[in-house]
Each structure stands twice: as C-alpha cells, then as structure tokens.
Write a structure and sequence with these properties.
Strands 12, 13, 14, 15, 16, 17 and 18 form a 7-stranded mixed β-sheet that branches. A 5-stranded mixed β-sheet has the order 1-2-11-10-9. Helix 10 packs antiparallel against helix 13 (364-378) and helix 17 runs antiparallel to helix 18. It has 541 residues and is α+β, with helices and mostly antiparallel strands. Among the domains are: 69-204, Dipeptide-binding Protein, domain 1, CATH 3.90.76; 290-512, Dipeptide-binding Protein, domain 3, CATH 3.10.105. Strand 3 and strand 4 form a beta hairpin. It is built from 18 helices and 22 strands.
C-alpha cells in the first residue's frame, strides 16, 4: 500500500439510515416507492468519486459494492464467497490462483463479463499514467505489478493472464492468505474497456450513464452532493436472491435531522449522536456495531510548527482518548492508543492490538515538556488551525481537541470545517497544519493501515511522513512468509511512526450506536472493506 492517497480514512466511514416510506431521491419516484420494495438510505457525507480506480473513501466504496461485483463477495460472517467467479484453484505453494468465471454473467448492457475485463481493470489501476490511489492493493501482491507501476516493466510482464473468457490466472509475490478477500474489494472489480472508450476516459463514472454495472443494482441517478438512486439489475446473475427493487442514498449530514425522520416513521435505520444514545439505550430498536476504523490526528511535517518532532509529540500527548470515546462520542467507540484497530488479525491466538499493546497514552506533564523544548527550537507558535470534515462526529471531535489543547497546553486552536471531499482535497494538497482523519480497513490485516505511511510517494494525507527504517520494515513485511517475523516487523513499524516520530495522534476506534426497525432483515454491515451489503435485505412487516 505504498500509494494509498486518502485518507482515511479508509479511509473512512459513513452513516446510513434506511427509509421505506416517503419520497425518494428523485421527484419522479415519489409514488412508486410505496408500491415497490425500495430501501431509502442516508449518507452522512457527500460522495467523492465513483471511479473505482481512483476513489479512496468509504462512502464511494460502499456504493460501488452494491452496483459492481468482484470475483468474490464477503458474506455475513465476512468470509469471501464465490461471486463473478464460480470457483478458484490455489496451487500447493499458494502462489498461483486460477479463477473460473460463472456461465452467463453479464454487464448491465448485456455484454458478457470476461476474464479480460478483470485483467484490463487491474492493469488500468496499476498503470503509471493512471495515478490509481489504490494501485498498491494490487501491485503489493501480484508478480510484476510494482515494476509495472513504477514504469520499469511492460504490462505483459505482470502475472495476470486471461487464459480464455472464463479463466483468469494470477501469480502472487508471496503467499497471501487474505487474497480471496481482496478480490471482493472495489479496486479488484472488472471494467469494460469498450464502454470506457465509448464514453471517454475523462467522462467515465461522472454520471449514472457513464458507468457500466455488473452488481446487484444499477444507478439511475447520481449527484455527488445529493446522493444516488439504485434499482435492481435485471442482468445480474443472482437477481433471484435480490429481494428489494431498489434503493436511494441521500446525503444528510446532520444526525439530528436523520433522527427526526426516524421518529416520524420515515426512516428504518439511523445512527445516533452521542447526546441521543442514553435516551434510546433501553429501546428494543437500539444496537451498536464495531468497525475496523481508526480515527487519528494527522500532523503535517511540511507545515510549521509540526515540522518539529517535539511539537508533534506535545500535541500527541495532550488529550485523553478515553474521555473522547466515553463522554463526547458515547456510541460504542473505544479509545485508541495505537493505530491498528481493535479486532484486526494478529496471530492465531491474539489480535494485533493485543500483541502490540498501547503505544502512546496521554501524559500532560510530558506534553508540556515537549512543547517547551519545541518552542526553544522554533521560537513562538504560529496561528494554529485544526482541519476537520463537517459531519457531526468530526465536528464534535474537533471541539473536544480544541478544548484539550487549551486546557493542557495553554494554546488556542482555530477549527477549520470543510465538506468531507474538501477535507480530503485540502489534506492531499498539504494545505493544513493538523487534520482529523480516519482509515477504515479494506481487509483484515494490520498491513492494510500501516502501509499507508510508507512514504513512497510522500502524501499530504499522511502528513508527508517519511522514515527509511519504517519503509524498510513495511517493504520487508510485505515479502516475509514467516507470520511471526512479519508481525514483529509491523509492531516495530507502528512504534516508530507513533512513539519515535510522533507522526499522528491516535483518537479512537469507531463504534456506532443505531436504531433499526425490526421489520428490516438481513442488512449486512462489514467491519472492513466496503461496509454495506444491500443484496440480502428483506422487508417483513
């Protein structure tokens, strides 16, 4: 993951609420939504990008997961199950995967989905001219991919072979036990080269009409600031098991607005703000869920005063994640004292977090010492600004940090609020001092998040952090077949980034409290990857 340009948060995540009554995203769909089984959803932020090669955020990934499909798809237990592929043969050395595609799989225009569509998509994502933000999720594992991405090898040298229309062969750099799960992720979805050539490279995925679909649903409307409208894909191979007729996803950023809609009977599922949790905790409709999502305070190494390690460490130790999780959020989130989220795989006996332990914990006296030392080195502090997105949770977190920095360091910090996509763009451009960010895991392994700070190339989203020792550990871990040695490398890398360099300040691991009507069944929320599965939803009133 040397070239993940995001954010966070995988990147990353978003709120969803589900409506069955009321008006749809389109004014023309008002009456029809009462006749058909239409699920209405709410997103808590705008939709940055539905180009699967370029996108980096959780909202876009979850939409793509419902309009597209890879070789495999995660089930309710987060295990990969055959999807576009009917089966896969894995060689004895676990380095060669041969996928056998199903009969009769089609694009939404009726064209067959072929092995070449997967090869084209994967090479497109890794092509050096594409600037695919998630190219690393392919080239870190596929033989020849890294060299191709660096412009040092031809596409023919990448070990992806379309043997025929229904057979795809892939050779891996090292045994990767989670590879089938990777093929369920958006960057591994197929693309139809003929269609992209027809609509044009620059127009692809900008509107509902400039995407070709192979998943359970197709989009009929798409507006980044407003939302999307989906309807059941008549060409989908498993359409008989899709029990709803469609869905809408409308952008509603304020949780209080969503809750009002839920209480008025228009919503079937809503996430709760911290102030509302206690009022609903005893309700039969109340629940909580946990996610492999790490929220953190990213410092920008290229902006004063955070080009100074002592200043970074001062701010890193000057707030209490426990108070943030328990009092400010109050939604099932857990305090973060490391970067890799709770529950992410470690060895067969313990999770990574259990193995690595706490890396940084608040220490206000030490924070003041670091601040004084940093000021001796740089002089007076400049005006300080904290960048955040404009959703409820991000704003509440920013306000908490502002208060903590004033109380524990005696410094004033202004909060700069931008729409989610604007926050991402500002961080990509390195036009910030410190920013609240998050990463939602794409797959269940600590490498998923730790590789983001590999420093190749420098990324504003990662604070322009670069450390040769860290990079060597990550690069070595990617190729290390011994799992215990690999985990030791990753544990050391996390400590270097956090404790030695003060790269960022861990905030919390995301939990969400929600209300859900009892008649909506079989909604799947994954803790990692694309979070939302609409395919299996049933409505039983």
């Amino acid at each position: 993951m040397k070239k993940k340009h995001l954010f966070i948060l995988i990147t990353m995540v978003f709120g969803l609420v589900f409506l069955l009554a009321g008006c749809g995203f389109s004014k023309d769909s008002t009456g029809k939504s009462e006749e058909k089984k239409i699920v209405h959803l709410s997103l808590d932020n705008d939709i940055p990008d539905l180009n699967q090669v370029l996108t980096t955020d959780g909202i876009s990934f979850s939409i793509l997961n419902n309009i597209m499909e890879g070789l495999y798809r995660l089930d309710a237990d987060n295990n990969p199950q055959p999807a576009m592929a009917e089966s896969a043969d894995i060689s004895e050395d676990k380095l060669t995967y041969t996928f056998h595609l199903r009969d009769g799989i089609k694009w939404s225009n009726g064209d067959p989905v072929t092995a070449q569509d997967f090869k084209y998509s994967w090479l497109r994502a890794m092509h050096p001219d594409t600037s695919g933000s998630y190219a690393n999720i392919l080239y870190d594992y596929i033989v020849g991919g890294e060299e191709f991405n660096a412009g040092e090898a031809d596409a023919s040298e990448v070990a992806i072979k379309a043997i025929d229309d229904k057979t795809l062969e892939v050779k891996l750099v090292t045994p990767t036990p989670f590879f089938l799960g990777l093929t369920a992720f958006a960057t591994y979805f197929p693309l139809n080269e003929k269609f992209i050539n027809e609509v044009g490279e620059d127009e692809f995925a900008l509107t509902a009409d400039t995407i070709l679909y192979n998943g359970p649903f197709v989009m009929t409307e798409y507006d980044q600031a407003e939302g999307v409208t989906l309807e059941k894909n008549k060409e989908y191979w498993d359409k008989g098991n899709v029990k709803i007729d469609g869905a809408t996803m409308k952008v509603i950023k304020e949780q209080s607005t969503a809750l009002n809609l839920y209480e008025s009977g228009e919503l079937d599922r809503v996430y709760l703000s911290s102030s509302d949790v206690n009022s609903y905790r005893d309700s039969d409709e109340f629940g909580t869920e946990t996610q492999f999502i790490s929220w953190y305070l990213q410092f920008n190494f290229q902006e004063k005063p955070f080009d100074n390690v002592n200043i970074r460490k001062a701010f890193q130790l000057a707030y209490d994640p426990q108070t943030l999780a328990d009092t400010v959020l109050n939604n099932g989130s857990a305090p973060a004292y490391g970067l890799v989220a709770l529950g992410v795989n470690g060895n067969k006996d313990k999770t990574f977090r259990e193995l690595a332990g706490d890396v940084v914990k608040p220490d206000y006296d030490k924070a003041k010492e670091y601040l004084e030392k940093g000021l001796d080195e740089i002089g007076d502090l400049p005006k300080l600004e904290l960048l955040t997105a404009d959703d409820t949770i991000a704003k509440d977190t920013a306000t908490f940090l502002q208060s903590e920095f004033k109380k524990n360091l005696g410094v004033d910090v202004d909060i700069i609020t931008k729409p989610y996509s604007g926050r991402l763009d500002t961080m990509r451009e390195s036009d910030y001092q410190m920013g609240i960010s998050k990463w939602g895991a794409d797959y269940n392994d600590p490498m998923d998040i730790l590789s983001l700070w590999n420093g190749d190339p420098l990324s504003g989203l990662r604070g322009n952090f670069s450390n040769p020792k860290y990079k060597k550990l990550i690069d070595s871990a990617l190729k290390e077949p011994d799992e215990d040695k690999r985990l030791d490398m990753l544990i050391e890398a996390e400590r270097i980034a956090l404790k030695d360099d003060g790269t960022l300040g861990p905030l919390y691991f995301e939990g969400r409290a929600f209300l859900q009507k009892p008649y909506m069944k079989n909604l799947i929320i994954h803790p990692y990857g694309a979070k939302i599965e609409l395919k299996n939803i049933t409505i039983k009133k």
